């Protein structure tokens, strides 16, 4: 009798939701695997991807074998929903959290950097994923079939969405340079700007043309680093048949960002202005073959405001920085820090279950009065076998090469000119 009443209650709830045209969904991606990297500090169980295959490391750092989280897709869970308001209007929301699946911890990349401020112990990497319960997204929105949609809250930058679509390796955390790095893969200069707190994001489409505008509201006098900066970003896209183009551009002011090195405990919190753009294209050559390419240019310079950042900013995403790092303005004597990124690659679907993606990436860090020039190049490949639409097994490889006077400038220690990571993983979607 109790089971019958329970079943009746569940059916009644389902009927109510269906009648109200309301849906609420629990969803997620669980991605865990094994990887080998040639030069690295030990893996970190707070870091979203466990390892850092992007940044220059020391030649004398040994190889590491580790269980890794998020090799292909950052492990996450979330709740999303929408309600039909009638007349072509709807409301919607999303709450999305990031985790390191191996440890079960909420991902906190910023903490990994701060933990290495006094002495190197594990890998680290700055990010917009810094221990927030819903670090990946937290917003509500209103959509209209004619007038488009607007999101309010913590939203993903247009350039981050663009990277996920136009990266040959689909934003892979460990096997794509732009998938790993939020600075080049979504932040248009600074990784902290790949996801924007206290922001409004408007998007619409007319025919084959899409467009959008996004703004992060600033509290320039806040003691919290994530509240200080403002961001204005625009998006324009064209999609017709097998061909897609997209452009994004942004202007950010007074953004505090962690700077760090993997070969010495040199951690800083720099406040700067950035500007940048990203141009991308995608072409389906055949139903099985798709080519993706992009180019991006960013510039980092002195902040617009001349606040006393060293005394004003005391927290980084809720983490105290006292005794670890002092906030400073980007030095005007350095000159702008310009980074140009380009990539191209192809994906081929051999069968309905097996695909192979490959890409070439080139990131050129131009010289200024503070740092010499250096270039990161990488060749990446990923093979994926889908058991079902929810479960797949993948294997990835990235060969990275570092060159330029920066490597000599920063020695000792002797810096690695090459690094390689390869591994495999199991990904489950629900």
Explain what the structure shows.
This protein has 430 residues and is mostly beta strands. It has one domain: Porin, CATH 2.40.160.10. It has seven helices and 21 strands. It has helices spanning 2-19, 109-115, 158-166, 177-180, 225-228, 309-312, 405-409; strands spanning 22-37, 64-69, 76-86, 89-100, 105-106, 137-144, 148-156, 195-206, 209-216, 230-240, 243-259, 268-284, 289-301, 315-316, 319-320, 327-329, 337-349, 354-365, 374-386, 391-403, 418-429. Residues 7-403 form the Porin domain.
Overview in brief:
By secondary structure, the protein is mainly β. The protein has a single domain, classed as Porin, CATH 2.40.160.10. It contains seven helices and 21 strands.
Reading off the top of the CATH hierarchy, the class is best stated as Mainly Beta
Distance between the termini: 32 Å
If you consult CATH, what is the topology? Porin
Low-confidence stretches: 1-19
- Tally of extended strands? 21
Query: Which structural category fits the helices and strands?
Result: mainly beta
CATH architecture: Beta Barrel
How would you characterize the largest beta sheet?
A: 16 strands, antiparallel, barrel
Radius of gyration: 22 Å
Shape: globular
What is the arithmetic mean of pLDDT? 95
The SSE order reads: HEEEEEHEEHHEEHEEEEHEEEEEEEHE
Percent helix, as a range, is 10-25%
- Looking at CATH, the homologous superfamily is Porin
- Tally the helices: what do you get? 7
Strand content: over 45%
> What is the spatial order of strands in the main beta sheet?
1-3-4-6-7-8-9-10-11-12-13-17-18-19-20-21
Overall tally of domains? 1
């Amino acid at each position: 009798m109790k089971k019958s009443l329970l079943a009746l209650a569940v059916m009644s709830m389902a009927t109510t939701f269906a009648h109200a045209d309301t849906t609420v969904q629990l969803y997620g991606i669980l991605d865990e695997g094994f990887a080998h990297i040639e030069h690295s500090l030990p893996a970190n169980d707070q870091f979203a991807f466990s390892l850092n295959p992007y940044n220059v490391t020391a030649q004398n750092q040994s190889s590491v074998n580790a269980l890794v989280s998020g090799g292909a897709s950052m492990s996450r869970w979330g709740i999303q929903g929408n309600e039909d308001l009638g007349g072509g209007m709807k409301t919607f929301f999303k709450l999305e959290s990031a985790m390191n699946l191996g440890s079960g911890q909420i991902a906190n990349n910023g903490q990994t950097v701060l933990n290495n401020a006094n002495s190197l112990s594990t890998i680290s990497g700055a990010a917009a994923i810094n221990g927030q319960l819903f670090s990946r997204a937290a917003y509500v929105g209103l959509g209209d079939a004619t007038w488009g949609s607007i999101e309010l809250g913590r939203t993903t930058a247009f350039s981050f969405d663009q990277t996920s679509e136009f990266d040959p390796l689909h934003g892979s955390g460990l096997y794509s340079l732009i998938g790993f790095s939020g600075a080049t893969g979504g932040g248009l200069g600074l990784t902290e700007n790949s996801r924007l707190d206290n922001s409004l994001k408007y998007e619409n489409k007319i025919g084959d043309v899409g467009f959008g505008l996004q703004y992060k509201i600033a509290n320039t006098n806040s003691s919290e680093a994530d509240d200080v900066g403002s961001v204005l970003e625009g998006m324009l896209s064209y999609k017709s048949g097998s061909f897609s183009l997209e452009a994004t551009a942004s202007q950010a002011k007074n953004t505090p960002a962690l700077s760090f090195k993997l070969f010495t405990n040199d951690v800083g919190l720099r406040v700067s202005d950035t500007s940048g753009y990203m141009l991308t294209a995608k072409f389906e050559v055949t139903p099985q073959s798709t080519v993706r390419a992009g180019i991006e240019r960013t510039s980092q310079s002195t902040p617009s405001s001349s606040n006393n950042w060293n005394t004003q900013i005391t927290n980084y995403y809720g983490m105290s920085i006292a005794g670890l790092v002092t906030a400073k303005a980007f030095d005007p004597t350095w000159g702008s820090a310009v980074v140009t990124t380009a990539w191209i690659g192809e994906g081929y679907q051999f069968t309905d279950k097996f695909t192979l993606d490959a890409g070439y990436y080139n990131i050129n860090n131009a010289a200024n009065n503070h740092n010499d020039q250096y270039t990161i190049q990488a060749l990446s490949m990923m093979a994926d076998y889908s058991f079902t639409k929810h479960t797949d097994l993948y294997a990835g490889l990235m060969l990275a090469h570092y060159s330029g006077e920066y490597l000599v400038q920063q020695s000792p220690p002797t810096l690695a000119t090459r690094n390689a990571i390869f591994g495999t993983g199991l990904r489950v979607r629900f």
